[in-house]
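Minutes, project huddle
Topic: does the predicted pose make sense with FE2/S2 (inorganic) cluster bound?
PN asked that the exact inputs be recorded in the minutes so nobody has to dig through chat later. Recorded below.
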Amino acid sequence: MTPPEEPRVRSRGEAELDVRACPGGPLLVRGAARVSVDDDTWHDTTRPVSVVCRCGASALRPWCDGTHKVLSRRGVNPLEAPSA
Ligand code: FES
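Predicted holo structure (tokens), as shared on screen:
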């Protein structure tokens, strides 16, 4: 099984970022950020807190849609699941 690629998070401008990983789930990003989960596509966010998928199974990537919880209930480690 190939783990999904870790999302990359960058600050937009001079914004301070606070990035925290939820165990078995998404990254919580506080502050204006740019997020990428592949090579060249960057997604801007200005939300106070953005929830970024780390499992690769979200239909809303790069944002978490809660699918990691479904995987976990099925006994699958969301962070080791193959990307959707
Ligand atoms: S971390 Fe929540 S759907 Fe991937």
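Observations noted during the meeting:
- Residues 4 and 83 are 5 Å apart (CA to CA).
- The pocket of FE2/S2 (inorganic) cluster is lined by residues 25-26, 53-55, 57-58, 64-68 (CB under 6 Å).
No decisions taken; revisit at the next huddle.
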